[in-house]
Amino acid sequence: NNLERGRHKDVLFLSKQGGSVSCIFLFCDIRQFTDVTECLQEEVFVFTNKVAAVVHSICHSYGGSANKNIGDAFLVSWLLDKAPDEKEEAQDDLF
Predict the structure, then answer these.
(1) Which residues, including other chains, have CB under 8 Å from residue 40's CB and lie 6 or more apart?
(2) pLDDT tens for each residue of the chain, 95 residues long
(3) CB-based burial of residue 7 (10 Å sphere; 0-12 exposed, 13-18 middle, 19+ buried)?
(4) Cα 79 to Cα 84: distance, rounded to the nearest angstrom
(5) Beta partners for 23?
(6) Does residue 68 contact residue 75 with C-beta atoms inside 8 Å?
């Protein structure tokens, strides 16, 4: 892991080699956001935050993570379990 937790802060070690992970990404956005913006005007942030709360809570309830919000768009992801043969190799490394 390139990110190691220290006593006072998280430290990123760039000299370590990273690894690969398998995951599922979901990208979604608010339909007709331009029209919503025109109608709601200054209340558009309240609306967007309420939609974000729903998207994030559903994502978390299914074991996912919200990665990024940009305006009316949301990127969420789910880490996939290791493949069966990878699990066996990991167990073999323990012994």
Answers:
(1) 46, 47
(2) 555 565 556 677 777 777 788 999 999 999 999 999 999 999 999 999 999 999 999 999 999 999 999 989 999 999 998 665 655 555 555 54
(3) exposed
(4) 15
(5) 79
(6) yes
Distance (Å, whole) CA 2 – CA 7: 16
- DSSP assignment of 28-79, as one string? EE-TTHHHHHHHHGGGHHHHHHHHHHHHHHHHHHTT-EEEEEETTEEEEEEE
Q: How far is CA 25 from CA 10, 59, 73, 74, in A?
A: 25, 11, 13, 10
- Rounded to whole angstroms, the Cα distance separating 72 from 40 reads 14
Global model pTM greater than 0.70: no
* Length of the chain measured in residues: 95
> For the chain, first and last CA: distance in Å?
21
